[in-house]
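Thread: Newbie trying to understand structure tokens

Hi all, I'm a second-year student working on a class project, and my supervisor (Dr. K.) asked me to get a predicted structure for one chain before our next meeting. I've only ever worked with sequences, so writing a 3D structure as a token string is new to me. If someone could post the tokens and maybe explain what I'm looking at, I'd be very grateful. Here's the chain:
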Amino acid sequence: MGTSCEAAEESESSAHPLRPHRLDDVSFGMLCSAGEARRATRTLLDAEYSRRLLLLRVLVDEVCAHPESVGGIAPAREAWDLLARAQRQRPEAVHRLLMDPQTGLWAAHALRRLRGAQDAETPLWSDVGQLHALAAAGAVLAGLDFRILVPAREGAVLLPCLGRAQLDAREPWGVAEVEVNGGTARVRTHGGGPDIQVPTDATQDGPGWTGMRRLSLSHRGLTLTLTVDDLARYPVIAGTAGPDRLDETALRHWRRSLDGAWRLLVEEHRDSAEALAAGLFSLVPLPPAERFRPRSASASEAFGCVMISAPDAQVPDREAAVELAVTLVHEFRHTLLNGLMHLVPLAEDCPDLFHAPWRDDPRPLSGVLHGAFAFSGVARFWRERCAHENGSARERARFEFALWRREARATLEILHTHPALTATGSRLVRALLADIRSWDAEPVPETTLRLAERAAAHQRAAWRAHHVVPAEPTVRAAADSWLRGTLPPVAVSEETGGNVVTDPAGCRLDAFAHLVRLRITDPQAFAGARNGGPRPKDVTQADLAYVAGEQAEAAALYAEETARPAAWGALGLLLGRRGVAERPELLRAVSAEIARGGGRTPPPAELADWLARAWDDDAHSGSGSMSQSARCSQSTA
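---
Reply by user tm_fold:
Sure, no problem. This is what the structure looks like when written as tokens:
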């Protein structure tokens, strides 16, 4: 790192030189093979460090070109010079600081603001001035004596990788001073005020100081060291609230949960554990989520960070360990792909939206590719769990493996012919497909395969009922034909799709799979829900009857729930009429149009029988109905 705004020289750390990285440095075999995950992670980490240095250089150059952007704190040159001094003194400490996920999020955010690409309530100088806080943190880690001004927000001064000092808030956006003299770091309000002393071990709390806590998990010679970032200022997902500080009870719960997950990963998923040990740096904690539905997220600018919900303290330890382990594997796969996408584009811009079986909402091409990469890893995880579990835990592992093998493969088979994929993207998809196809011979009980097939079909049908809008001319023509008492128009069978319009109410569409997990793992809870007891959120008695195998009862109950779009999806499957099962959105739309046209709302089964006749080649002799194909376009609401 250079000592001026005009040049950022090569890192002085020989272990992490600033050099260009080629795609060949990360082979697809490394990314797709569990056995090569650690090597792929290290290669992507080196590339990401180079990228962080370049991003920081660009940011500093922009600030130097617009000196007013730092307000009255200090010229950017002062912060840059201090950071360069710290790097010369302790390059490994500055490397850790620059690779901190919050550094990536901040730098990208500040650069967007400097270029006018993003607005925020925070004054620009306060965001840009976090460069000075970064330099101060680096100098503290390097053991330098210095003094520098940094921004304060509501009196809070956040020093990356160290912690937060809380000063008296004289104004929402203030200025503080960080000083180290004789090895003691202090923070004070600029212009006077009491000092806050940073503890020698900055991870510990002290008067006015909240430390950035770390957990170190070791098992069988493999260590995972994680920052529990409950002080995060820059959100992993834009627009979301920052985390709350964990109390000691919550921190102990996280430590115990992570320890259980880490032991399981090291003992039974060693390759994944080695990759996580190399590249997972921080965890942003979220409150506990619903059983079997953990919440998690990652971001391209936060390499090595996962945002994840705490395991439910009410579930058995083994179940909690498995759930947390697979969630870590899942999110880290996103991190790896983000790292690859920083090196090379995998897809061109594409306006289309797609069904992603692991999401409730329609997704863009890049999002589906991300999900397919992540869930191919999830399928691998559950494949390996089948060999380690017994009893109901093995039954669940088999179900998860069958479901995600099926869904990941189906998605990849759609993606690999998409024209918007780059040559590199196509190579990656082909490599993933080859890997997942190699599992075709893996034995799974027939009953489990059928459950996985039904779960996949149920989610897909519910998704279509919520998000796919059939062409209006087709719907009107069908409703008119019904009201006239004639056959359905040919256009019903000729239409190839519909408009994809995101329905914000389309949530928790995985009800069937969710209930299968409950029935396998906790039969008593499932039986209690069937008998009127507590049931998972947004699950109905119709869903419970369907999973219990009572299909006639389920169909009757769904017919009473037609105000709920997902009920039409399940009805389309249960009624089993030709064409209608694949197009529940058409069944729903025609029913609504008939009601709007003044007719009696037809019973769903009766309407499905009638619509299915559109697929009967002999039914339309001389019918004279519409013949144009409906145009399929895709848009967001």
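A couple of things are worth pointing out once you decode it. The chain has a mean pLDDT of 90. The two ends are 47 Å apart (CA to CA). Feel free to ask follow-ups in this thread.
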